[in-house]
Automatic annotation (TrEMBL):
Keywords: Disulfide bond, Electron transport, Redox-active center, Transport. Pfam families: Thioredoxin, TPR_19, TPR_20. This is Thioredoxin. One of its GO terms (cellular component) is cytosol. Belongs to the thioredoxin family. Residues 21-148 form the Thioredoxin domain. GO terms for biological process: cell redox homeostasis; response to stress. GO terms for molecular function: protein-disulfide reductase activity. It comes from Pararhizobium polonicum.
C-alpha cells in the first residue's frame, strides 16, 4: 500500500506518540496465546496490554494488528485466512487481534472507521495497513512487503553445504567434501549437484566403479542433468583410457614418429583422465594443426568432449578454446 492509498498514513506520527493512550497503568504480563495459535504467533490483546503486545513486541519482529468485532461479517471472513497466512509465515510476523467493541480507544486514535482493518507495526510504530476481507494472496504480498519474503532455511543450508563441499573438493579434502555431499543427499535424495559431487569424490579417490554405482537407476529428470551427464562422460573416458595401452610406450612412439596421430590422440585421452588437462588439450591441438582430416577431424571432436567434462569456465577449457580458435580462424 502506498502512502497515497493508505488511509492511516497522514496521522501516524501524531497518533502514536502519546504512550499514555495505551492504558494508564503499566502493562501486565503478555496475555496467554489464543487457543489454536501457532507457538504464540496469534493472540488477543486489550487496551492495557497494547503497549507490550504491539508497540514493544514490534521492536523485535513485525506485528499485524487486526481490528475486528463479533458482529462484523467481513471480519469473520478475514480471520481464518489471515491466521492461516501468519501461521505459514513461520514467525516472520505476529498477529494481534483487538475487539473494538470491548476496546475502542486504540482504533479511534488510529482513525479507523471501518473494519476489518489490519495495521502493521514495525520498530514500535505503524508503517502500513489494509482494510477489508482481502484475498489470501494479497495478505501474503502484504507480509512479504513488511517482513521480507520467506526464506527456505533448509534450502539455504543445502546451498551453503554444497558451496563448502565444492571448496573442500577443490582443495583436495575429499573426505569432507564427500561427507557434505552425503549430508545433502540425506535431506534431498534427488539433489543432482550433490549426486554429481559425490561421484566426483569417488572418482578422485580412485573408485570409478563406485561412482558409477551412485549414478545408476536415476530418474528421467536426474539423467538429463548437465552435471550428472558430465560425470558419466568422465567415467566413460576413464574406462576408455584404461584400454589404450601404456602412456610411456605411446610417448616413445611419438618420439620416433611425431606424426603418429592415432598414438597422440590415445595419449591425450590418457593424460586427460590422469588430470593433466593442458597436456591432453595440447596433444589434440597438435593433431589439428598437422592434419584436420585425420579421423574426420577426430581431434577436434575429442577436444569438445573434454570441454563438456571440464566445464566451460575451467581454466584448461578457456585456454584450449583460445588456442582452438586461433587454429580454426587462422
Amino acid at each position: 500500500m502506498s502512502g497515497n492509498d493508505n488511509p492511516y498514513a497522514a496521522s501516524y506520527g501524531n497518533q502514536m506518540t502519546a504512550t499514555a493512550s495505551y492504558g494508564g497503568a503499566p502493562a501486565p504480563a503478555a496475555a496467554t496465546p489464543a487457543a489454536g495459535s501457532a507457538a504464540g504467533l496469534i493472540k488477543e490483546t486489550t487496551t492495557a496490554n497494547f503497549a507490550s503486545d504491539v508497540i514493544d513486541a514490534s521492536r523485535q519482529q513485525p506485528v499485524l494488528v487486526d481490528f475486528w468485532a463479533p458482529w462484523c461479517g467481513p471480519c469473520k471472513q478475514l480471520t481464518p485466512v489471515i491466521e492461516k497466512v501468519v501461521t505459514e509465515a513461520q514467525g516472520r510476523v505476529r498477529l494481534v487481534k483487538m475487539n473494538i467493541d470491548d476496546h475502542p480507544s486504540i482504533a479511534g486514535q488510529l482513525g479507523i472507521q471501518s473494519i476489518p482493518a489490519v495495521i502493521a507495526f514495525v520498530g514500535g510504530r505503524p508503517v502500513d495497513g489494509f482494510m477489508g476481507a482481502v484475498p489470501e494472496s494479497q495478505i501474503r504480498e502484504f507480509i512479504d512487503k513488511i517482513a521480507g519474503p520467506m526464506v527456505d532455511d533448509q534450502q539455504a543450508e543445502i546451498d551453503a553445504a554444497l558451496a563448502e563441499a565444492k571448496t573442500s573438493f577443490d582443495q583436495g579434502d575429499l573426505q569432507n567434501a564427500a561427507g557434505l555431499y552425503g549430508a545433502v543427499l540425506q535431506a534431498d535424495p534427488d539433489n543432482a549437484t550433490a549426486l554429481a559431487g559425490l561421484a566426483q569424490c569417488m572418482i578422485a579417490a580412485g573408485d570409478p566403479q563406485q561412482a558409477r554405482d551412485v549414478l545408476t537407476d536415476l530418474s528421467e529428470e536426474l539423467a538429463k542433468d548437465a552435471g550428472i551427464i558430465a560425470v558419466l562422460k568422465k567415467l566413460d573416458q576413464i574406462e576408455e583410457a584404461r584400454k589404450l595401452g601404456d602412456p610411456d610406450a605411446l610417448e616413445q612412439l611419438l618420439a620416433t614418429n611425431p606424426d603418429d596421430h592415432g598414438a597422440r590422440i590415445k595419449l591425450a585421452k590418457i593424460r586427460n583422465v590422469e588430470g593433466d588437462r593442458d597436456t591432453a588439450a595440447d596433444h589434440l591441438l597438435k593433431v589439428m594443426k598437422r592434419d584436420r582430416t585425420f579421423e574426420d577431424d577426430g581431434a577436434r571432436r575429442e577436444l569438445l568432449q573434454f570441454f563438456d567434462v571440464w566445464g566451460p569456465m575451467d581454466p584448461a577449457t578457456l585456454s584450449a578454446r583460445r588456442k582452438l580458435s586461433s587454429i580454426l580462424f587462422s
